[in-house]
Design a protein that fits this description.
By secondary structure, the chain is an alpha/beta fold. It has 2 domains: about 5-45; about 75-300, P-loop containing nucleotide triphosphate hydrolases (Rossmann fold). The chain has helices at about 5-10, 10-20, 20-45, 90-95, 115-130, 140-150, 170-180, 190-200, 205-220, 250; strands spanning about 105-110, 135, 160, 185-190, 230-235, 255-260, 270-275, 285-290, 295-300. It has a 9-stranded mixed β-sheet, sandwiched between helices. Helix 8 packs across helix 9 (about 205-220). The mean pLDDT is about 85.
C-alpha cells in the first residue's frame, strides 16, 4: 500500500512497530529493493534491450604474469608481408610499401573530407586482389550504400556489415563476424560503434572503448577461426576546431594516426600521418574524388603535423 520510497520513509516508525525491530524492517526493505530490481529487468526484457553487462573480476594469479624478451616472441612471417593497394597510399602506409597485417590505425577528418571514400577505395582494391576485407558501416544503411556503389561501382565488391540492423546485439554481432577472420576490417565510424555499445549495455564510454580495443587486439594476434592477423582501419570524426574527437587512450593504443584534409573550395584532399609505427616518413599525398572514381597524385609533399 505504501510502496513509494518517500512514503516508506515517512512511515518508518509505523512499520518498525509492526515488524518489531529495525533489523526486521531492514530485511523487508532489502526484499522490496530486490522486487523493484527484478521488475526493472522484466521491463527491459519486454522492450527488447539486454540487461547491463555483468562486471566480473577474476582473482589475481601472480603465476599468470609473463615477462618476455623480444627474442622469445614468435609470430608467423606473414605479418611482415604488406597488403598493397598499388596506389601512392602504399608509400606512406609503411616502409615496406602497403598496409601491414596485425595493425590498427585511425583515419580522421571532418565531414566531407573523404575518409570513407578513401578507405572503401583501399578495401575495393585489396578485395579484387583476393584479400578478405570487411567494411563495418555504423552510419550508412543499405540504401545509402547502394547509392554510393552506383556512383562508385568499384566499391560494390566490398563485403559490408550494416551494424544499424543489430543495435541491440552489437557485442555478439561484431565478435561473431570478426571471428570468421579477415585480412582488413574498416569501421565507419568507431564513434558510432562505441555509442551503440554504450546505449545497449548502459556503460561508460571508457568501458565501451576498452572492449573495442581489446577485441581488435585479439584479432591482430590472429586469434580467430582463420588465423588472420587482421589490420583494422578505424574511421573517426574531428571536432569543429579540427581536433581529434576521441580519447587519449584511443590515440595512444593504436599503431597509426592518419589525417584527411580537404582544401577549401576544391576537390583535392591531403592524406598524411602524424604517427605511424610502421613507417618513418613524414610525407603526405593528395587525391581527388571524382564523379565515379578516386584519383591519386603521385607527387608526395612534406607533412607538417607529427606526434611523438
Amino acid at each position: 500500500m505504501f510502496w513509494g520510497s518517500g512514503a516508506i520513509g515517512r512511515r518508518f516508525s509505523f512499520f518498525t512497530t509492526i515488524f518489531g525491530s529495525q533489523r526486521k524492517w531492514s530485511y523487508v526493505q532489502a526484499i522490496i529493493k530486490n522486487i523493484k530490481h527484478m521488475s526493472k529487468l522484466k521491463i527491459e526484457k519486454r522492450r527488447g534491450r539486454p540487461a547491463a553487462n555483468p562486471t566480473t573480476t577474476e582473482a589475481f594469479n601472480p603465476q599468470s604474469i609473463q615477462l618476455l624478451r623480444g627474442s622469445e616472441l614468435e609470430f608467423d612471417n606473414s605479418i611482415f608481408e604488406p597488403l598493397r593497394t598499388d596506389t601512392p597510399v602504399d608509400d606512406i602506409l609503411s616502409s615496406s610499401g602497403g598496409l601491414m597485417p596485425a595493425t590498427n590505425m585511425v583515419i580522421c577528418g571532418g565531414p566531407g573530407s573523404g575518409k570513407s571514400t578513401i578507405v572503401l577505395d583501399m578495401l575495393a582494391r585489396l578485395t579484387r586482389q583476393g584479400y578478405k576485407c570487411l567494411f563495418v558501416s555504423g552510419e550508412m544503411d543499405e540504401i545509402g550504400h547502394y547509392k554510393y556503389c552506383r556512383r562508385m561501382p568499384q566499391f560494390a565488391c566490398v563485403q559490408t556489415l550494416f551494424l544499424k540492423n543489430y543495435t541491440t546485439q552489437v557485442r555478439p554481432t561484431l565478435e561473431h563476424v570478426f571471428n570468421q577472420g579477415y585480412d582488413v576490417v574498416a569501421i565507419d565510424s568507431i564513434a558510432e560503434v562505441i555509442e551503440m555499445y554504450k546505449d545497449t549495455y548502459r556503460c561508460t564510454e571508457s568501458a565501451a572503448e576498452l572492449w573495442l580495443l581489446d577485441l581488435q587486439s585479439k584479432h591482430k594476434k590472429g586469434n580467430n577461426d582463420g588465423n588472420y592477423y587482421t589490420a583494422f582501419i578505424n574511421i573517426q570524426q574531428v571536432t569543429k576546431s579540427g581536433d581529434f574527437a576521441g580519447s587519449n587512450r584511443l590515440k595512444h593504443m593504436t599503431d597509426a594516426m592518419c589525417h584527411v584534409e580537404r582544401e577549401k573550395d576544391s576537390t583535392t584532399r591531403t592524406l598524411g600521418f602524424s604517427k605511424n609505427r610502421d613507417c618513418d616518413t613524414s610525407m603526405s599525398i593528395t587525391f581527388n574524388i571524382g564523379i565515379s572514381q578516386v584519383t591519386y597524385n603521385y607527387e608526395m609533399t612534406e607533412n607538417d603535423e607529427s606526434e611523438d
